[in-house]
Design a protein that fits this description.
This protein is an all-alpha fold. The chain has one domain: Growth Hormone, Chain: A (Up-down Bundle), CATH 1.20.1250. Helices cover 81% and strands 0% of the residues. It has 17 helices and no strands. Helix 2 packs antiparallel against helix 3 and helix 6 packs antiparallel against helix 13. It is globular, with a radius of gyration of 21 Å.
């Protein structure tokens, strides 16, 4: 962070009021989106029963971020991040309203659902890097880990509350009213952004050519070998894990023979696990090297995901335990990784770097999702959970023996653009 921006931030004692007013609004929006997402996926599951349709729904939502992520991140570093978030939240809410009206009229088609998912994914491709990069400007550096833990806890709480609530709402109300919740909660996200300022990073060269900034971000990531290796490994893992969890409704219905409430129970178990894992991590503190903590978490997640694939149909209770354990290991894996990135990357380049890394880790997921439906229809959905679990375990163990990965917390070399030593 530039010295000037840091001095302004630290001189203001009300950073908590500003940040958490915005943060709470964002959580309301995520809550509404989670309920709407559950309702849409369950509708597709009941209407089609097709693994290909469910995989395609995940694919079309992911593609905008994968393809446009690097370009969107560079624009986020050039534009006003507050305005980016307002527009992104507004566009997402608008098309949720369009989809709700289509369901209300009885004229909804699957291709229309896919189109809305593409547009929502486009909004997310701008919103996520804008909010993530703004966090390190609104929150003092010494509190970033606490905020990351709070994000994990909030994510876990939503996983507990939203699935059974969405399942209950589906039994009480038509789907268009449930989608309307997403529109209302988006307003709660936009309102605080209208009244609270978000600082822009020092050193953000607005007049620097766009492709020069894009190239700078690419060189930064390329020079940071530890982050590059981690991203390449995550690329392979996401190609296995994203298809697996996109097919979770079919694992529940076709393998375990259960319904919407049981799907909600599995996702709630994941949420309880996330909260428990976050609390455990906050009390334990992790290993001295945060990357060791993350690798340990990967191995644990692999055991949980793999168990979901090998449990026989009568052992649904075991699946609940496996999902809970997977959730427990999630913050132990992701919390340290996000803290490493936010601490090492300068705010003036975070939009580019975060988006590039996100696009890189998701690059192979479309391939996996394209294959997911046909392979699951042929061999069953369990094959994806087994493959994903084995991949996590292998990467976790091998990471301990990769010097560049073990030294990732040292950040990029001092000669790379916008490295910590040069800021």
């Amino acid at each position: 962070m530039g010295d000037g921006a840091e001095e302004v931030l630290m001189s203001e004692g009300n950073w908590k009021g500003r940040f958490f007013s915005i943060w709470v609004g964002q959580q309301f929006s995520l809550f509404g989106s989670a309920i709407a997402q559950f309702a849409i996926i369950w509708w597709l599951t009941k209407e089609t029963g097709s693994a290909t349709v469910l995989a395609t729904a995940s694919l079309v939502a992911m593609l905008p971020g994968v393809i446009l992520g690097p370009f969107a991140g560079t624009l986020v570093d050039r534009w006003n991040r507050k305005k980016v978030m307002i527009v992104a939240d507004g566009v997402i809410a608008l098309f949720s309203l369009v989809l709700a009206l289509l369901f209300w009229s009885g004229n909804v088609r699957i291709w229309q659902i896919f189109l809305v998912k593409v547009i929502r994914g486009l909004g997310g491709a701008f919103h996520w890097p804008a909010f993530s990069a703004s966090t390190s400007l609104m929150v003092p550096k010494e509190h970033l880990s606490r905020v990351a833990g709070l994000n994990q806890a909030a994510h876990g709480a939503m996983n507990i509350v939203t699935p059974p609530l969405a399942a209950l709402l589906l039994s009480l109300a038509p789907i268009h009213l449930i989608l309307g919740i997403d529109v209302v909660t988006a307003i709660f996200a936009i309102l605080p952004l209208l009244f609270f300022p978000i600082p822009q990073p020092q050193g953000a060269a607005q007049d620097e050519p766009y492709f020069s900034q894009l190239h700078q971000g690419l060189r930064y990531v390329w020079a940071w070998k530890g982050a590059l290796i981690l991203s390449l490994g995550a690329t392979v893992l996401n190609a296995l894990l994203n298809p697996a969890f996109s097919l979770l409704p079919l694992l529940v219905t076709k393998h375990f023979g259960k319904g919407a409430m049981e799907l909600g129970l599995l996702e709630s178990a994941f949420g309880f696990g996330i909260i428990a894992g976050g609390l455990f991590l906050s009390l334990w503190g992790g290993f001295r090297r945060r990357i060791h903590t993350a690798l340990f978490g990967m191995i644990g997640m692999g055991l949980g995901v793999g168990a979901l694939g090998i449990l026989p149909p009568p052992w649904f209770f075991g699946a609940i335990l496996a999902m809970g354990f997977t959730g427990f290991m999630n913050p132990i894996t992701n919390g340290p990784l996000m803290a490493i990135l936010q601490a090492a990357v300068g705010p003036e380049i975070q939009g580019r770097v975060f988006s590039l890394l996100s696009s890189l880790t998701g690059a192979a997921s479309p391939v996996g999702l394209t294959l997911a439906g046909p392979l699951a229809d042929l061999f069953g959905v369990q094959v994806w959970f087994i493959s994903g679990g084995l991949g996590l375990i292998l990467m976790g163990f091998s990471g301990f023996f990769c010097p560049a990965l073990v030294r990732i917390e040292e950040g990029p070399p001092s000669s790379s653009p916008a490295s910590p030593e040069k800021r």
